Amino acid sequence: MKKTIQLLAAITTVVLTACRTEQTAVVTAAENEASNPSRPNILLIVADDLGMLDIGAFGSEIRTPNIDKLARSGISFNNFYTSATCSPTRAMLLSGTDSHTAGLGNMVEHMAPNQRGKSGYEGHLSSNIVSVATLLRDNGYRTYMAGKWHLGMKYEQLPYNRGFDESFALMQGGSSYFNDMMGLTSKVPRAHYRRNGDIVTELPSDFYSSEYYASFIIDQLKADKATGKPFFAYLAFTAPHWPLQVKDEHLNLYQGRYDQGYDALYEKRVAAAKKHGVFPPDVHDSQPPAHIKPWSSLSEQEQRRQSRTMEIYGAVVERMDHHLGRVIEHLKDSGELNNTLIVFMSDNGADGSDRSKLPGNDTWLPQAWNLSYENMGRIGSYVYPGAAWARTSVGPYRMYKSFLSEGGIKSPAIIVHPNLNASNTMTNEFITVKDITPTILDYADVRHPGTHYQGRAVKPPTGVSLLPFLTGRDNNPHRPDEIIGWELFGQKAIRKDNWKLVHLSSKPKWLVKPDLSDQWALYNLAEDPTELNDLSAVEAQIFSEMKKHWQEYATKQKVVLPEWK
Q1: Residues 409 and 526 in one domain
Q2: Which residue among 440, 471, 502 closes a domain?
Q3: Does the structure show a pLDDT above 90 at 29?
Q4: Which member of 29, 217, 413, 525 has the lowest number of beta carbons within 10 Å of its beta carbon?
């Protein structure tokens, strides 16, 4: 690994020419205590587009022994809420604020013309917030980041300038898993990487993203072991984001496993998930999107290609778990594991969109990629799960990534705390991604500066610390009357207690199929977690109150609803 880092340093083309944006503060009392080995460490692990039922401990047939071990050692959350796509979630994760406050009211790739230039729609991690990495670094932590960033491309927006001492980052939303540096769309056909502030123009010949990101974190931990300082490590896998790829020796890890199809897998996974406590035994299935064909209606050739897609998906997830396990094993070997808070999560629901429908991809994909059956999963292939397999990942919840329905914003999460009140527990306690930063700061005994940081105005976190819940001092992290809102792509949602009001838009056309109503719907999630029964007509007063709550949220967050061309 050290050789590959030296290689990257040798081939970089940009030299550091500016000071870091979020400068380390004057040495604090906490920093003077940094040599105290008892100060706790933090490991934050984010999977990309991983569905709740893709984890063994949540009912999957995919082999995830290392994630399952975390679940046995910690608390698993089946009621953990994110945004519906990656960069808004990651902005909330690192700031503890709403995505609009943090600058990602919309993904930069899909910003509508009327949103550009507006506050909250910067398309990168805003200067209105101070990142959790910066605050930890200010207080004596060594901070590392490896993997997907997707929170700003310019120099001052890099992880190196937002609190991370050492970083190796994929700058945009995804890429090839190998060293060919292929991008995701015709608009961004080449992946961009940064090693700290330097542009990476070439990757090592043996590069495989899940392996490399884990190795980078391990190498930083080894290099700084002698300092005695605590660490904050952010390991942001791109797995299992498309294009799904694995090394040749792992292509057949799941050969033949999915020949019975997605309908059969859905039934098996949901039954297993109920036994694990992910869903209540009497949960009802949401209606599958109309564009999902029954497995039996597919041709033999279609079935063959579809089953191969899921074989590759399973292999990608298993290899991510393997490399996550290498990091955990290093912590165990170095004696740091029992002094480390570990948070594992996915950034949104599984992805079910047809990526060939993105603007320009219909012609670019067959020209730039080898889409043959024989090449599926290899370098140069472009495989994505699609709606039918995504449904097996999100279970009975409605829709998937990109939608503010439960299937899009409910994700798996596991927290391992050295002093947990209980372990090997599955809880349905409501928490959100905004709670992670306050929890980390509380655990590290670091205080957020509030509304000002080094001469500039900032927004404090609006999430809550989960530490009292994790240690048994509080049974309910969130108040029943707390109001949580979302907006993305013009979709709208608001939740209060068990009531959820949601509006799924049929625009933009590249995002959705035409079977959405474009109207508000009201659900009681305690009785109807899969959003089957719209109660807007029956509960007229609650419906009116919830619409008012959403408007208050939109006003506070300065939401700009997109006007699509």
Answers
A1: no
A2: 471
A3: no
A4: 29
Catalytic position from the list 100, 124, 150, 323: 150
For residue 74, give the DSSP letter. Answer: S
> Number of structural domains, the chain?
2
Residue 320 is inside which H or E element, if any? Answer: helix 300-333
Supply the CATH number for residue 381's domain.
3.40.720.10
Alpha-carbon span 54 to 61, nearest angstrom? 8
Domain limits for position 512: 482-565
- pLDDT at residue 490, as a whole number: 94
**Are 399 and 490 members of one domain?**
no
Radius of gyration (Cα) for the chain, nearest Å?
Answer: 22
- Establish whether 150 is a catalytic residue: yes
To the query of whether residue 86 is one of the catalytic residues in this protein, the response is yes
The domain that contains 560 carries what CATH number?
Answer: 3.30.1120.10
Tell the residue number behind the tokens 């792992």, with chain if given. Answer: 250
pLDDT band at 2 (very low <50, low <70, confident <90, very high): very low
Q: Could you tell me if 465 and 516 lie in one domain?
A: no
What single DSSP character describes residue 25? P
Task: Please give the Cα distance from 58 to 427 (Å, whole number).
Answer: 12
Provide the pLDDT confidence category of residue 514 given band limits of 50, 70 and 90. Answer: low
209 pLDDT more than 80: yes
Report, as an integer, the average pLDDT of 507-521: 73
Averaged pLDDT score across all residues of the chain? 92
